[in-house]
Amino acid sequence: MTMAQWRNGEGTLTVTDAQGGRGAGIPLRIAATYRARSRGLLKQDGIDGALLITPCGSVHTFGMRFTIDVAYVDRKFNVIAVRTMKPGRLGLPRLRARHVIESEAGAMEAWGLRPGTRVEFAPEEAGGRR
């Protein structure tokens, strides 16, 4: 998917491990516009699934109400790094990162999402089809 194709909306996140095994589809919100990226998870009490922020190379948790997991993803959808961030923190920029995935703390470990894994994003198309 090229940058021009990213749109705000819903979708599914799939994690592929080193052996090529695929995990279950994880509900995904996509934030692609400046306004949606700026808002992110601020002033929310939690998230069911994950939030994809694209394009994005760094995040902060000022104004957050809960601890989050952050995965930095490169252009080829490989996970570069995964960090847990408490509210009120500023994350280091990742120069190779093109996308960031955010979820509640502990969720990424349960999904098997770690550096070196590959992720796939499937945005919902108009009319609810994928």
What does this structure look like?
The structure is a single chain. With 130 residues, this protein is mainly beta. 8% of the residues lie in helices and 33% in strands. It contains 2 helices and 7 strands, in the order E-E-H-E-E-E-E-H-E. The chain has helices at residues 34-39, 107-111, and strands spanning 9-16, 26-31, 50-53, 68-73, 79-85, 99-104, 118-123. Strands 5-4-6-3-2-1-7 form a 7-stranded mixed β-sheet. Strand 2 (26-31), helix 1 and strand 3 form a beta-alpha-beta unit. The longest helix is centred in the N-terminal third of the chain and has 6 residues, at 34-39. It is globular. The mean pLDDT is 88.
Quickly list its features.
single chain; mainly beta; 7 strands; 8% helix
The major sheet is characterized as:
7 strands, mixed
Gap between N and C termini: 14 Å
Radius of gyration: 14 Å
The H/E string reads EEHEEEEHE
How would the blueprint of this fold be written?
Blueprint: E1 9-16, E2 26-31, H1 34-39, E3 50-53, E4 68-73, E5 79-85, E6 99-104, H2 107-111, E7 118-123
Parallel strand pairs: 2-3
Antiparallel strand pairs: 1-2, 1-7, 3-6, 4-5, 4-6
